[in-house]
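Board notes, transcribed. Complex of a protein with oxalic acid.
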Amino acid sequence: MRGLVWADVFAQRMPDLAFRQWPDVGDPARVRFLAAWEPPHDLAQRFPNLQVLFSTGAGIDQFDFAALPSALPVVRMIEPGIVQGMVEYVIWAVLDLHREMPQYQRQQAQGDWTPRPVRPARERRVGVLGLGSLGQAVLARLVPFGFDCAGWSRSRRDVPGVRCFAGDGELAALLERSDILVCLLPLTEATRGCLNASLFDRLPRGAALVHVGRGAQLVERDLLAALDDGRVGEAVIDVTEPEPLPPLHPFWRHPRIRLTPHIASMTAPESAAEVVIENLRRFEAGEPMHGLVDRARGY
Ligand code: NDP
Ligand code: OXD
């Protein structure tokens, strides 16, 4: 389906480029550009003249960099459809948690009509881990609600209306003021397992977690323990390790976990094809491509 949309867009916008859909690759030696989610392991041998590898998603952690030629540029997907989906999902989750909907859902199941005080948005502190294309887009929509917003990144960022923290040394300060914590970090060696007991210990008691990064960032047993003893009050989880989650996994039926099957956002085929076309133009013109991965950083 996505391939058909791309074929159509490429035929209109780049008619001189021979666009092919897997597995009909033609002569592999003539393949210069590849867009893939999980490419074959023998990519370098199969396509000896590959010049750019495009990820069809925002993440690039699915690639085995060790198996890729070190000089091969890898480009992640930054396109409006992914951004819009993530904004919708995180705004839904934050409003749902802010207005205590999980609690009212449990009350409904008990036939319990007990109103709770409504806390103004300005008194709800939202912290976003990751101030990249998605973290910043989400914050731009959270700020107008009046939430007390903060964000955290590796290098120092300046985001309007947001208190910005940077680096490992400032993580604790971000956590201490996060009633709702949203994870929008890429999966790297530095972020693997970062949502763990010591992070949960630093949150205000009963804080909520919205996890839309990658499953391997979450230490599941630590989250379950934190939910059990009330350090974490609620969790909205969109990404797990592995995916799909095994049928008997405790997350499925946990009363304080809302689980979705990695649908927070998805690449929109048309706008994604446009983004790749623009990047191909940039590549041919010797200009920097949008979303070029810095392999040393890992994202
Ligand atoms: P970006 O690369 O644009 O931004 C990443 C942000 O994380 C940057 O602000 C970066 O800091 C920060 N960061 C990275 N490593 C660290 C670290 N060790 N310590 C502190 N901050 C760090 O990514 P996107 O915003 O485009 O996407 C983020 C992730 O969202 C993707 O990698 C993917 O895993 C996930 N995603 C999930 C989807 C879903 O449906 N659930 C859909 C799409 C994406 P700095 O600003 O200094 O570089
Ligand atoms: C992505 C995703 O990285 O869907 O685009 O998670």
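Residues 141 and 161 are 11 Å apart (CA to CA). The chain has a mean pLDDT of 97.
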